[in-house]
Amino acid sequence: MENYLIKMFTNPDVVHAVTDRVCQFYLQANEKFFDLAGDQMDGFFFGNDFGTQLDLLMGPDQFDQFILPWFKKFIEQGHRHHYHVILHSCGSIYKVIDKLIAAGVDCIHPLQAKAANMDAKTLVQHFKGSVVFMGAVDTQDLLVHSSPEQIKAEVKRLMEILGPQFIVSPSHEKILPNIPPENIKAMADAVKR
To answer: Cα(95)–Cα(90) distance, rounded to whole angstroms?
Structure first.
């Protein structure tokens, strides 16, 4: 990954060639899978982490040049097959959310709650009604250290802020072993109410 990011500046042709090779494989594999899956699925989930706790892994210009063109191809492919497109990236991706929305992303996952500008209030202020948000229930601190009552209160707060275009889930792609089972249950119970 480090070489990939450095070569965006030192040898962009290599980055384009590698990215094209890998993404072309997935584009073709997706076609085969989508043809087999048909209407048995509703959403197409793809992506990779391109944010850190503080910012993007690369500058917005590099994102536009190397990443976004392929994201647009995958988004178009998912929509052509009548799937909702769910884009995954951990970290602070705030600077490019408007570009993802313009490209047609239906849902952004996972809203890493503690990453810069990825809190619910900031996202609603700038993007409410433009995209569905999935995640936001903090897995770095809240789900690990809080009581079930605190978790239920936070889920309720997030639901009030983000509204109906919000899917409650952890702020990372999975539930890690350090999260007590009763806290996972509390998160689910809060949604049922």
So the answer is: 13
Report the amino acid identity of residue 67: I
DSSP 145-182: HS-HHHHHHHHHHHHHHHTTSEEEEESSSS--TTS-HH
- Rounded to two decimals, the pTM is 0.92
Alpha-carbon distances, residue 21 vs 1, 6, 70 (angstroms): 16, 19, 11
For the four alpha carbons of 124, 127, 133 and 137, in that order, the dihedral sign comes to negative
Question: Phi then psi for 66, rounded to 5 degrees?
Answer: -105, -30
Q: Using CA atoms, how far apart are residues 21 and 86, in angstroms rounded to an integer? A: 23
Which mean pLDDT values do the consecutive 10-residue runs of the chain (193 residues) have?
95 98 98 96 94 95 97 98 96 96 97 93 94 93 96 96 92 85 95 82
CA distances for 168 relative to 47, 49, 84, 96, angstroms: 19, 20, 17, 22
